[in-house]
Each structure stands twice: as structure tokens, then as C-alpha cells.
Amino acid sequence: MDNDNRRASRRTEVLSNHLLPRPHTTTTLLSPSNCLSYSPPELSSSNPVSFDTSVMRSLLDGHNLDDRDWLFGLIVQSPLFNRQERGGRVFVSVDYNHTMEQQREETMRRIGYLLDRGVFRGWLTGDGPQEELRKLALHEVISMYDHSLAVKIGVHIFLWGGAVKFLGTKRHHDKWLRATENYELKGCFAMTELGHGSNVRGVETVTTYDSRSGEFVINTPCESAQKYWIGGAANHATHTIVFSQLYINGGNQGVHAFICPIRDSSGNVCPNIRIAECGHKIGLNGVDNGRIWFDNVRIPRENLLNSVADVSPRGEYLSSIKNVDQRFAAFLAPLTSGRVTIASSAVYISKIGLSIAIRYALTRRAFSMTPNGPEVLLLDYPSHQQRLLPLLAKIYAMSFAGLELKMMYVNRTPESNKEIHIVSSAYKATFTWNNMRTLQECREACGGQGVKSENRIGPFKGEFDVHSTFEGDNNVLMQQISKALLGEYIVCQTKKQPFRGLGLEHMNNPVPVLPSQLRSSILRSSEFQLDLFHLRERDLLGRFVAEVSQYQAQGESKESAFNLVSPLPCFVNYSFIDSLPYSLYVLPELSSCRGLGQSFLRTSNTENLHRGGVEGASWFIEGCLGSVEVVICLDFCG
Ligand SMILES: Cc1cc2nc3c(=O)[nH]c(=O)nc-3n(C[C@H](O)[C@H](O)[C@H](O)COP(=O)(O)OP(=O)(O)OC[C@H]3O[C@@H](n4cnc5c(N)ncnc54)[C@H](O)[C@@H]3O)c2cc1C
């Protein structure tokens, strides 16, 4: 046989080995192993939880528990949410195999299901803290299940609906709010342009007024003015809020918001509107982000959202807010609710990631310490504890802080608006950054299993990454907070008045004196750590003000002096810790772990525990794991 024939014959033999069934010849039989009889803790009959979890839950969720359970119930009942039963338990999770277009249509079907069951009732037409808390609670539940669904609803209700509510007046409320709640139209929110995202004041879309016809004319004058990333625009939205420069008699009155139809009720794009797709994203593919161009589109004069400023039929510009900066700030009001929901949802997602990673670490074993000995639980490795437990402790702190932010928001008054803007920006940035770090650690802590989409942590990284960018880029928000703190500091120092709000009140007290001997017990005490932070903040603020003033003395404007002193004055990260009843908890399941002894809980503000009646429960131990607390504080400190 020549070489060619030998190779052909060899290939045929290999192929037939693959194709023809052969008797299986095993030399060893699988012997029973502990792994095969493994049962995850939630399925085991002996319940390891030694305290009332409902009390813990009511502390953490904080409000509207029945509403949350009702919505969880609706979600698990419907096949639209990929219900699966395993081991007697029901699981729901988005299907990661679907195409972008399938995901977008599923989002709309899920919205229809929730709409029919009254989930959105009162979200825009209801008023008062109770209605708002119900809305926030239900939105949190939705975001835990499917981020695309939450964002798509958020754009329609919080951004489009919020803009109509906050920037519009009675004529807009009567016409649009109930219709929005009932999804008779689908709204989107076109603020960002290709050329201007964070710098909203720089948007290039132009709107002029035609007094002969009583219409506004909206135009996209150049490619960089195309609206970009607009959630809902690519496939479904019928109306948009357009943010545009308003020119009256040739004079620019700054950015204003208008209602503009972009599709008819059959889904056809309106005349003089062009729409394109933003394409596949690293997450959130159930949301149809799109680009919009306006080619001299005409809308009635009444479509200007006129709570801040109006234009008379004859074309006179009317506004009770004469200060251009204040007028612009008023137009950004709808973004505050978005920041509150993003901050809160980031906390819930970190909780899910940590629950998954910690449960896994309580079941997964790797390496044995003795020959033929049992392998060690991952969570019994000190390094594993140090990776996950500080993150767990931090998320308890953030959970309470997020609750406090929600309470501030729903009980807002005109006087508290500035503080809410600052706190919501700070928490949005801090919690979303923390969420991404937490998810990455959890992903790695689960090893290869963390990569599997079904285990959720991996997809969360893609889904929630955008939290640091939309509704205010985190770095840009941090700069705004720094400016606000700087302004507060300068005003109080110059006018010799006490600090009030923004977490700077500690500066009304004498400068803390640190003990000369730093023993371990002192280092671990929360009083010492707070003193340290207060000193740090005083020092950073003082130095920051001095540097800005130095540049101003050299002729720089306040704005440019501020930018010259940046990079980020990171004291802002800490400024709100005073308002954080930060607590350290470790789940009771961990108490069986070597090295941790008992489960423990420590809080610098026990109010929450007293309220929940948990104090005195057997698992409550005053005391703390010093290193964990230090990590928490340092992280807030930046
Ligand atoms: C998935 C998704 C959905 C979105 N949905 C909507 C929507 O529905 N409607 C809408 O209007 N917009 C939407 N956006 C747009 C979003 O709000 C913007 O992307 C965001 O405001 C940031 O703008 P930008 O992308 O232009 O980034 P830029 O503003 O160009 O920022 C780029 C980088 O520069 C930095 N930077 C910017 N300014 C400064 C400065 N002064 N000093 C130092 N650093 C600076 C930022 O920190 C950032 O890292 C969405 C975006 C995404 C990704």
C-alpha cells in the first residue's frame, strides 16, 4: 500500500470508530462518592437559620413587603418569565440564548403582562410618599429579575413620565400622565446627543418658534446633534421628550424640553423624523436604544413643557426663573428619581451576587489539609473570607443608606431638593461602582461556575456596567458633589455660620484629637475611626479650598480653578457616612465556619435593630471583626 492509500485507510478507520456504535469497555466502575449525594443547604431539611428571617428581611427591604411578594408571585406564575422548577423550588431567570430582537419583544410582552395586572397603577397619577414607595419597591423587584425590563419601564415612567410630571403643567398632566401609566403611548427621553452626553448644556439640537403658525420647529443641524442612546427609540417609542436649545427672536434661551411624536400608533416613523439603531450592547439588549434626527419637525406650542418657562402665542419668552443656571438645573429634575432607583437597584444586585457566591463558598470544597482528609470549604479559607465578607458587610451599610435615600426622596420638599440631588448623586456613584467591584469578586469566587450565564453573576457584570455612565456619569457626578461641598464650605467659613446638611456638620465641633498611643482596641473603635475621617475631611477640604483660591488669585475663574485642582477630591466619598447607620452583619449560616466563631453583628447605630426587635436575639453579639470594619470605612473614604 502506498502512503496515500495508507492515510486514506487510517482516516476511514478513525471515522468508522466515531460513527459505528461499539460496545463500551470500561475498566473501572464509578464508586459512590460524597459529591454525588451532595445536597445544597437550601434543600437540606435541617434549617441552619437560628433567627427570624422575616425580621431581617423587613429591616433590609424596609417597606412594601406585601407589594413585593405580590409582584414576585406574579413573576413566578407566568411562563413569560422562564419559570423553572428544581428540587421543589421555583426559579425565574431571563433566557440568555435569545437574540437581541427576541429580547426586545420579550420585554414588551412582559410589560403587557404586568400592565394587565395593575402593577403600574398610580406610578404617575398617584401622589404622596406611600404611592412613591410602592412604585420604588415594585421597580426594585423587576430590576432583580430582568434589568432590561426595569430600564425599559424606567425610561417610559421615570424619564418620559417624570419629565411630563415635573417639567409640564396641568395641560400636559391631563393629556399624558394616565395615558402613560396605561401604556396608550410609549415614551422615551432624548437628552444625550452623539456630541454631548455629560455636557447637556452643550446639546446642539435647535428649536425655534414660528408665531405665524403657533408651532415650534425642531431641527438637528449637524451629525453630532443626533440624539444617541435613546432607550425605546429604536423599535417601540411613539413619543419623545426632546432636549433642545430654544431660540426666540434669534436669542438663545438655553436648553428646554419639548414633547414630540416620533411614531404613529401603528409604529410607522413620523414624517421628518429619522431613526436608527444603536446596535448590540454588552448588556441591556432587551432595551432598544436608538438614534433620532429631527428634520425641521413642527410641533404645537403647547408641547413645550412649561413649568419652568413658556413662550406666548406671539412669541414672547416668559420665565419666573431669571437665573440661567437655576433654570437649567430645574430641567434636570426628572433625573433625580432615576438616580435613586439606580442606587437602590445596584445594592440589590450586589446582594444577589454575594448571596450566590457565599452560598457557593459554603458548599464547594477544595484541597484537604491532611492526606485523605475531607476537603476544606472555600469559606473556611481566611483569604476567601477576606474577599467576600467585607463586601457583605458593606452592602448591609449601603442597603440602609439606600433606604434612607428613598425616604429623603419620597418626603422631599423644595428646601430639601438640593441636598437630595447631592446625596442621590453620591450614592448612585458609590453604590454602582461598588456593585461592579462586588460582582467581579463574586464571579471569581465562584471559579468556573461564575462564568456560566445561568448562575447570573457574569451577565450582571454586562447588564449593570452602564449604571456608572447613564443618568449622570459617576465621575462627573462626583465633581458636582465636590463643587457643592466646596461651595458650602466657603459660604459657611466666609459668613462664619454653622454647617448644615451635606454631612459636614461634624466641622461645627472642635477638631478631634487623636490619642498618642494607638493600641489595637483604639484602632478598632468606631469613635477613633470617625475621628480619623473627620480629620481627613477637614484636611482635604481645607487644602482643596486653599488650592482653588490660589488659582483664583492668579486670575482663573472659579470653574477653571476647580478643574485645575481636580483630580477628584475624594473626600466626597466619605462626606455622607454620618448619615449611614453602617452595620456589620454576617449571615448566621457562616457561624459554622472555622475561624469566624459565632455569627456576629455590629452596628454603630442600633436604631434599626431596636425597631426590628432583633436586639437580644441569640445571634446578636456586640463586637466586631476589626479588619472588616476598617475595610468598610476605608472604602467609603476613597
Ligand atoms: C445603555 C445606555 C442607555 C442610555 N439611555 C439614554 C436615554 O434613554 N436617554 C438619554 O438621553 N441618554 C441615554 N444614555 C446616554 C447617557 O446618559 C450618556 O452616555 C452619559 O450621560 C455619558 O455621556 P457620554 O456617553 O457622551 O460620555 P462623555 O460625557 O463623553 O464622557 C466620557 C468620559 O469622559 C469623562 N468626562 C466627561 N466630562 C468630564 C469632565 N468635565 N471632567 C473629567 N472627565 C469628564 C467621563 O467621566 C467619561 O469617563 C444612555 C447610555 C447608555 C450607554
Could you describe the 3D structure shown?
By secondary structure, the protein is of the alpha+beta class. Among the domains are: 139 residues, Butyryl-CoA Dehydrogenase, subunit A, domain 2, CATH 2.40.110.10; 221 residues, Butyryl-CoA Dehydrogenase, subunit A, domain 3 (Up-down Bundle), CATH 1.20.140.10. The chain contains 18 helices and 17 strands. Strands 3, 4, 5, 7, 8 and 11 form a six-stranded mixed beta sheet that branches. A three-stranded antiparallel beta sheet has the order 6-10-9. The chain is globular, with a radius of gyration of 29 Å. It starts with a helix and ends with a helix. Bound molecules: flavin-adenine dinucleotide. The site of flavin-adenine dinucleotide (FAD) has 19 residues, from strand 3, strand 6 and helix 13. Flavin-adenine dinucleotide binds next to strand 3, strand 6 and helix 13.
Output the keywords:
18 helices, 638 residues, Butyryl-CoA Dehydrogenase, subunit A, domain 2, binds flavin-adenine dinucleotide, Butyryl-CoA Dehydrogenase, subunit A, domain 3, 17 strands, disordered C terminus
Task: Give the helices and strands, then pairings.
Blueprint: H1 3-19, H2 53-61, H3 65-77, E1 84-86, E2 89-91, H4 100-116, H5 129-145, H6 147-167, H7 170-181, E3 187-190, E4 206-210, E5 215-219, E6 227-231, E7 239-248, E8 251-261, E9 273-277, E10 289-294, E11 297-300, E12 309-311, E13 317-319, H8 324-331, H9 334-361, E14 365-368, E15 375-377, H10 382-410, H11 417-445, H12 457-464, H13 474-495, H14 520-524, H15 526-553, H16 558-565, E16 583-585, E17 601-603, H17 607-612, H18 626-637
Parallel strand pairs: 3-7, 4-7
Antiparallel strand pairs: 1-2, 4-5, 5-11, 6-10, 7-8, 9-10, 12-13, 14-15, 16-17
Helix pairs in contact: 3-5, 4-6, 5-6, 5-9, 6-7, 6-9, 9-10, 9-11, 10-11, 10-18, 11-12, 11-13, 15-16
The protein binds flavin-adenine dinucleotide.
